[in-house]
Fold these 4 entries.
Entry 1:
Amino acid sequence: MRGTSFPNAAAFPEIRFGTTAAYPDGGDRAVALGTLDLIRVPKPVTVETKLLQAPDGNGQVRFSGHTRLSRSDWGMTAFLPLVGNEVRISLQLTATASP
């Protein structure tokens, strides 16, 4: 999205998530705690994940995950309440073990 009322992808092209901890949540599920850096404002978030592929011979593992956040937590309040505050984030991740 462009402009100053929303995340403004032109000015802030990267969104980063760094995991600080992860906990099993039964079967093929886990909860990842971490920091989401959106528009250069870091905030703690929780991501619920599901294992899609167990570690293979190359040390790769695949997950899907989702979380919800309030855009107003990052100062994006334009057009509230006409435009919803909740943002749903879905992701797929392939991770490879370091040598």
Entry 2:
Amino acid sequence: MRRVLPGLVGAYALLLILLAAEIYGAFLPLARPARLLLLIPALLMAGVVATAFMGLRREGAPTIMFAVSGALWLAILLGLGMLDPVTRAMYPAPQSAVSATLKSH
């Protein structure tokens, strides 16, 4: 237990540093294609959780295969869930006579 604790504390500190980097990057005025760079800290965080907290370094091939397939299914489901908001076109609503009279007062 005493040998494992410094590794877990270090992994937690690394997660906090990556979280700070991600929050800092979220407030930067990035161009649209550069926003994909914000995925780098998130992927690194997933790697830290998988290696340090889940202990996948010490597991066999079937366990790693199930962990990777779970992450793949999560990516597929999140991608399918994002299809609607990403591809939805925003059409402005026509201005009605009632709202025009309210704005003029």
Entry 3:
Amino acid sequence: MQRPQDEVPLPVLRSARFDAVLRRITESAVTLVDAQDEAVLRTLAAAAGVAIDNARLYEDSRRRERWLAASSELTRSLLSGTDPEQVLHRVAATVRMLSGADLVTPAVPFDGGELVIEAADGEGAEQVHGHGRQPPPGNPQAAP
């Protein structure tokens, strides 16, 4: 039989990986942690791990759902004959919103292999719009 303790740290596992520690500390020597308390705490730690996993899985599925919806909307825009420049600006804005990026700059290859930023969305977008650069030698985008 285990001796009662005044502190019980228990790991919170998520998908068999350590994620956090659930700690129960008694405030006085009168209310020590016994084996039954420890069993309850182990159950709580396991439930916390499952809850954390479920919350992360739910957020992942919501993020995928948002990306798929945005992808469908952008595809519809392209297929409907919307001006490609407008669609490119919409792509930049959508990707920035969904990714949480500060700045998104889709670059388009032009003759000679130069990549030019045709759309930009976010902080500093006006400074980078229209900027370009030559791809490194050997890049398949470069013109012969």
Entry 4:
Amino acid sequence: MAVVQSTYAAGMSAAIAGLIANMEQANVVTRQVQDTGGIGFGKAVFQGTADGEITETASALFVGVTVKDVTVDNATADTYALTANAGVLESGVIWVTAGDAVTAGAAVSVAADGNFEADASGNQTIDAIFLDSGSDGDLVRIRVR
């Protein structure tokens, strides 16, 4: 019988993109994925074409951030597939990946490529603030209001 896993970490990862960060009040709703390529966990999502749909394509109406779902079973790991029901955090604290250097307390903006950034120039500012400072690629918490 082949060995599936032979090494183990001493503990679980402290954070994963799309993971709700704490036990304070959060509001998570279900929306259907409109994007053909699916939508990853911990991504900013916006109102889709039809009622109840979401897209990563930035539009005037920010809906929330996709929540990690360990029960998702598809060919692309950590992604809600086209037409899947996705958990979307409308308010609360969630882990995301910083798209550039960010500072705790700064307003959150979403770049055209979907990255969470502190620079509002050319980006869409959303109703959220960074709770942690970090560099490009770091996992940081944001508070969505």
